[in-house]
Amino acid sequence: MIRDFAPDDADFYLGDPYPALRRLRREDPVHWYEKAACWCITKHADVEHVSRSPQLFTSTQGILLGTGPENRRNGVPHTILEMDPPQHNRYRKLVIQAFAPRAVAALEPRIRAIARESLDAVPVGEPVDFVNAVSIPLPMYVIAEMLGVPREDWPEFRRWSDALVKAAGGRDVGTDSMRGEMLALLGEMFAYFTEHLADRRRTPREDLVSTLAWAEIDGDRLTNPEILMFCTTLLAAGNETTRNLISGGAFALMQHPDQKRALLANPGLIPNAVEEMLRWWPPLLSFTRHATSATSLRGKEIGEGDCVLLLYLAANRDEEEWGEDAERFDVRRDHSRRRHLSFGFGEHLCLGASLARIEARVLFEELLVRLPECEPAGPLERFHSRLMNTIERMPVVFRA
Q: Which residue in 125, 121, 137 sits closest to 396, CA to CA?
């Protein structure tokens, strides 16, 4: 038994989880964790297998540890993350064109303009929170524009985005005061998008809310609750994960100045560096699946209904996939024939993967030109979560 392994406890991830995960990969890669009643999957190939087998491992019974079907609130529609084919495929088709590589590439001039605007506002020579000043604005404002949120509403949009992050499992999420605050903010967001949706039903525009308002599945229009849940998912997935990628990538470069020097000397490495950032600092720590019938994996008998925890941060450092230096951050690592699992795999491959990649690439291209000198100015603060790999605050000083 690995005594220091506790995937149901956010403190496990806030420390150094990698030694325990490394031991599990080598000694017990399909590990039964009694406390949370789940099978913990730590090998790259096994996470791929579970992810591409929805007929064996369903997403419909909950995708977060401790939130199975018995904990679902009656009447709340499933998100697209909680669907299996063919239903998942039908919903995915509604918005996939907006996130296709060609469509996202057309957004690059606007993405670069937002990146430059946000970086030009960063103070130089004094302490500043990197997350607040650099990581948050770009992905949040891009997804806001895609959803058709006007610029004057961006401050409110940010408040709702932060509430969604807290709802994903912060330290105080279970307290009455915090729960009440989050529910109030989410209520504001739903009211806003309800009004937004009514306007788009009357007068469609070139945005995702209009796409959802007029979309049909098998001849039926989506209901308002379904569209609101879709908007919520797009806000969280299109914002928080890229925020985590940018913060984690910047942290990696500060921890490995030789790798930063490599990018400064050869900016053409930045796209590959983004893949390495995703591998080394996955924005999401894990998701769950549930076995639809009795099956086996690496000789372990998994029972019908059993919870299976896909540990992306473990799979991304699997020595079988990445070699014995898998723990090392290396912007030159070959990502052309291997794939990290930070965007998921199979049917649930992240819709916004192309968007996240281009946002991160553009941000680091501009950052390393405009503000190449950056150093820590205080302790890094992590978000207390067993789901999100979030840096909450990272004080730095940029030098002219």
A: 125
